[in-house]
Specification:
elongated, mainly alpha
Length: about 100
């Protein structure tokens, strides 16, 4: 992970943590103030699952193409490994409705 990526990740974590702490202070005023954080949680559940799937499938897909180029008879069995990371999006979609 590069230094730039670490800085962006740290600033994102601090931004989300500060908005959560601000919501806790306003929670005494009304219970409907958490709707914004719930929406952020739903977006993160689906969005991070999709990003993780994209990263995984990019690496697996490039390896899959190389392996099929060497032996085309393995294409069917290797396709299964390409589809396994897609479950991350399904779990993120499920979490979206459970939140």
């Amino acid at each position: 992970m590069t230094k730039y990526n670490k800085i962006v990740l740290a600033s994102l974590v601090f931004a989300l943590a500060s908005s959560g702490l601000a919501q806790e202070a306003a929670e005494a005023a009304s219970d409907s103030s958490q709707e914004g954080l719930i929406a952020v949680g739903k977006g993160l559940a689906l969005g991070l699952g999709a990003v993780g799937t994209g990263l995984a499938q990019a690496r697996i897909g490039s390896s899959l193409v190389g392996a099929v180029a060497e032996d085309p008879s393995k294409a069917g069995s290797l396709l299964l490994y390409f589809l396994i990371p897609e479950t991350l999006v399904i779990f993120g979609f499920l979490a979206l409705f459970l939140i």
